Amino acid sequence: MKKQIIIALAVSISAFSFAQKKELKAVEKAIKGNNYAEAKSALKQAESLMSAMDAKTKAEYYYLNAQALYAGGAGSMTDIDAAIESLKKVEGGYVAESNELKQNMVNSILTKGNGFYEKQDFSTSSKYFEKAYRLSEKDTTFLYYAAVTAVNVQEYDRALTLYEELKKLGYTGIEKQFYATNKETGEEDVLDKAARDLYVRSGTHSNPGERMTESKKPEIVKNVALIYVSKGDNVKAIAAIKDAKAESPDDVNLILAEANIYFKMGNNEEFKKLLETATQMDPNNAELQYNLGVLSAEAGDAVAAKKYYDKTIELKPDYVNAYINSAALVLEKEKSLIEEMNGLGTSAKDNKRYDELVEVRKTIYKDAVPYLEKALTHDSSNINAATTLMNIYSVMGETEKHKEMKAKVDSLK
Questions:
Q1: pLDDT score for 10
Q2: What is the model's pTM?
Q3: Which are the contacts of 222, defined by CB distance < 8 A and separation ≥ 6?
Q4: Model confidence band, residue 141 (pLDDT cutoffs 50, 70, 90)
Q5: Rounded distance between C-alpha atoms, residue 31 and residue 57, angstroms
Q6: C-beta of residue 385 within 8 angstroms of C-beta of residue 376
Q7: Which of 31, 26, 30 is nearest to 97 (CA)?
Q8: Does domain 321-413 have CATH number 1.10.260?
């Protein structure tokens, strides 16, 4: 009896093994014929035999399942997620085949992600970049791209989750960059090492070099902080900035980000203190001075804003936006005048006051004109400066200048 039972079991196991192989062969054949629906159907049948599969057969099942779900790139987002999970279960056999499939999937997913990015569909591109990372977790840059593109469409909750994951991974984005000067363009090209060396040897490039890129960690922590600000969680925002400053104490951009947070919180005293700190850290940075001017203007401190814009122009005389913003500061004074003028009556006293305000308004315009003219000197195609000047000349009754500027505005439209 024992011998008969053993024989019966052996026959049963053999039958299961044959059935498994038959179903998986059918899956493989369907995939080769790009018949993914048929492959999924056969996989369903094979799944019922899972408990009897050995390790190698299970690995084959999960590998083929991932192929069927991915469907040569035609699979849905949900199918791709399921394919990724299936590939994670491949152990022992079919590892090489799975790695090849993963790489093909990564390449295809990145191509699609870049395509959506170029179409400015940042939400979809972000999801594809994240999937590329889930397939190839050593390539943390894909996760960084996913977070950045999520921020572009204000998907802050998702971006925050991705940024927090990057922080836990210790991601910095620092990498070695190889470069050489393109002799034809005179510009520096960033290349992989092999290509750079080849181009230098062939004579198309010169001055080869290498350098380490800057860390993206301050940017990540700053964005985390700003996301918390947008969510109204200022306590976490300030904590995030302080973490970033502890790591990069000399990063002026972090100081500005913190200042901006305090400004949004209504803490003008801390805001101004941080602006002064930033100025002391990098007093000859025109871009910094300009940004300080913008922040001061937004905070309603016109005196400080003008000081920063003047310093910007001193450091960089062709900084067009500093001229335009300086003009805007001057013209801002017009608002209160117009309100008062509109509120005046028709009495002799009111008429006299009205005439006084007209003269004050002309003075404001005269003060703004030099800034706008300077802006056009450095950027003759700046339509904002030209349009504002055209309107000023019209109000001031300078007919010829108005005609000339109107012709310029028309040519720029």
A1: 39
A2: 0.61
A3: 240, 241, 244, 253, 254, 257
A4: very high
A5: 17
A6: yes
A7: 31
A8: no
Terminal Cα distance for the chain, rounded: 99
For residue 206, the 8-state DSSP code is E
The CATH fold of domain 218-317 = 1.25.40
| Beta-carbon contacts of residue 392 (< 8 Å; ≥ 6 apart) | 365, 368, 369, 372
Residues 37, 74: Cα–Cα separation, whole Å: 12
Tell me the one-letter amino acid at 247.
E
Residues 6 or more apart from 231 whose CB is under 8 A from it?
156
User: pLDDT tens, 93-116?
Assistant: 788 888 888 888 888 899 999 999
Going from N- to C-terminal start, the domains of the chain cover 1-93, 176-212, 218-317, 321-413
**Do 89 and 73 form a contact (C-beta atoms < 8 A)?**
no
Task: Round to whole Å and give the CA distance between 366 and 390.
Answer: 13
Sequence letter at residue 238: I
Q: What is the pLDDT of residues 214-223, one digit of tens each?
A: 888 878 887 8
Distance of CA 29 to the CA centre of its chain: 43
Nearest to 143 by CA among 118, 172, 121, 105: 172
Say which amino acid occupies 250: D
Q: How far apart are CA 289 and CA 309, in angstroms?
A: 7
Residue with the two structure tokens 């008969």: 4
